[in-house]
Design goal:
Elements: H1 12-36, H2 39-66, H3 70-101, H4 108-113, E1 120-125, H5 137-140, H6 142-146, E2 149-155, E3 158-160, E4 174-179, H7 181-192, H8 207-236, H9 239-267, H10 277-296, H11 298-301, H12 308-315, E5 320-325, H13 342-346, E6 349-354, E7 367-369, E8 383-385, E9 388-390, E10 403-408, H14 410-420
Antiparallel strand pairs: 1-4, 2-3, 2-4, 5-7, 5-10, 6-9, 6-10, 8-9
Length: 428
Amino acid sequence: MAGEVSYEPVSVKGVLAEMKDTAELLIDLSYSAVLLGSEDVAREVLELEERMDVLQMRARMSLLMAARSPKDAEALAPVLSVIGAAEKISDAAGDIAKVVVEEIGLPEAMAAALPEAIETVASADVGVDTRLAGETLGDLNLETETGVRAIAIHREGEWDTDPGPETRLEAGTTVLVRGAAEDVEGVYQSATGEAYDPPAVPDLGIEDLERATGAIVLMKNMSELAVDLAYGAILFDSEALAREVVELEVEVDALQSRFEAWTLRAAGRVEDPVRLRGLVHLGRSTEVISDAAVEISEGVLRGIGTHPVIAEAVLESDEVLTRSVIAPGSDLGGVTIGEGMIKTETGMRVIAVRRAGSGGESSTQGRLLSGGSENGADSGGQRVRNEWVISPGPETKLHAGDVLIAKGTRAGAERIDALTGNGSSEGD
């Protein structure tokens, strides 16, 4: 039975920042639990979900105490939307974890496909006398230098779901890492002393099931990107970004409809249709995440704007996004993302580009927000709508005046500002 929660004075900003970080961690860990078939990781997700329930209750109590007039209520309404959205993401992650805890069942092809969803996720056992053994995450500067993030550490039978700079990677511990495939391969080898061998995707021979599996991966990519852009919309008070969130949510809804049809058709051809229940759970939960992204940006969409406490909370989050404009004379002008070596030089991953001259994004002042994950949404590596390039690939060409939205560490944020020809990011 859940413990009692009573009102106590808390910092709304601090609670919102913790909810944001917890929601994003829950997404990572829930899909990792499915990928690894790990009941231990799944139970960590369920414990974090309970923690989120307490956080959202305290945040709502504080907002109720703060609203003393209709004007206050209008200003605080977007904050309630952000709280509700984080709670929805938490609940969706809990439902994903239950696929493992309740042994609902999942086709092998799904677990094999998940490592490539957005970024590669791998579980590495730190070996004796390896390069990472005995080092702290702070000493390694792992995410900034490699673009790979340690999302959880398992040691002495316990999971640490909030590893920080002081966390030491002792031999015998297990670390869950996430990043681009080529970067994860290098970190995995440095941790284990062995080459990374990704799981092979079995040939199911059932086209509809393969389509359904691929749809889940694509829906996850698009939903997490929508969350990133939603926080960008409220932080930058950008209606253009908010509209992109709505477009992504519409696409996820359409994809879920096709996913359901493919899954139902596949049920008549598999030996044990009951094992497809896990796919259905994943599809439903992933769609909820995209709905939550729209809820995050609702204040901007409806012209209410955003409350300063949200921006301040987002700036305190763990992982950040930068917004930088490519200045005239920058080395990035006229080259592709790959040629500019943005990932190599900064550890940041560009998740969206707004083309120069499209209006509304002309400031050269960089800003930060915490992030989710980049999206490899289509086979060409990028999605182009209006003046936005969503999820750009290495071949995307950049121009002076383009606005880059990228994610990574605060140290990486400073590097990308220098690379684009701007000063330090606002919020540092």
